[in-house]
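Subgroup meeting minutes
Present: P.N., E.W., G.H.
Scribe: E.W.

1. P.N. recapped why we're keeping a running log of single-chain structure predictions: easier to compare across weeks, and new members can see raw inputs and outputs side by side.
2. G.H. added today's entry (352 aa).
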Amino acid sequence: MPTRPTLSILDLAPVSAGMSRHDALAASTRLAVRADELGYHRYWMAEHHSSETFMSSATSLLLGHLAEHTSRIRLGSGGVMLPNHAPLMVAEYYGTLATLYGDRFDLGLGRAPGTGPATARALRRGGAELREFTADVAELAQYLGHVASDDEDTAAAQARFVNPELAALDRVRALPGEGTRVPLWMLGSSTGGAQVAAVLGLPFSFASHFAPAQMSEALAIYRAHFASDAPTAQVEAPRVMAGVNVLVAPSDEEAKYLYSTAIQLQAAIRTGTAGPLQPPTDDLDAVLDPRLSALLISTRSISAVGSPATVVEYLEKFAAEFEVDELITATYTFDPAMRIRSYELLAEAWQN
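Output recorded in log:
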């Protein structure tokens, strides 16, 4: 049997109706502890702001908390929306985590705001154009020690990526952070992220769990133009992670019932009415606008929902079709205990 891709977890610290925000963060902590015990490779948290649904606005703080409660699993951002932050500050935050807890952290970097326009302005959000974003990633890489500022052999190559206005960058130091070489990943839901990942030689995580439309095109661009000789390169060859919505239950029927919470969430996000997760229902037609059905099909197509055997079969076929090296799974259930159970069932089935 071919080697199965590595399994990881993406968490946004969701809040269910009737649950406090503290309880939501406590539920994420319990999931991370269990994921560590079950052998999952990574546990990433995604940056979102001004959200009544997700409590993952301060990812570096949450990851430091999880590091205190876990011992093996890699922890990371899935991702840090870099235009919302100064690269130096990101290097300091994640460099501090690496200094405290060692080589257990990843920096997944994205361009999206992770919020609405008003909150983006409040964040003093910078430019997200590909050229400026690419320069910010290269600046961050230098702070962390991925690009040696005093190495003449890399200076010319570095100039291809970093804005000439940053010529004095070698006089700025991220302390702690300098030399920690926290691994960088590029996140994307379109061909833009694929281009940046390729030119910088970074591993690429595609958001197929919510935006699968451009996946084939994006992966083709990434693999065709991957620059292993870039001064920022993290890997010698293209490495792909893909997102999948997953919900595992003892039976297909129960899994589909529990997954109705996630479908309600998708509908609420589409209509700008997102709030706490809602209880599962046997009658989605009673709670959803029928006009959303066509829109939701595309997202649900990258969803593995069912018994352990059903989910494993889907994930194996998906991974083989797109030749992915790693699967990062997102699970939403109204009851946090059902989310942990889903990951327990998946881990057991995947290891058999």
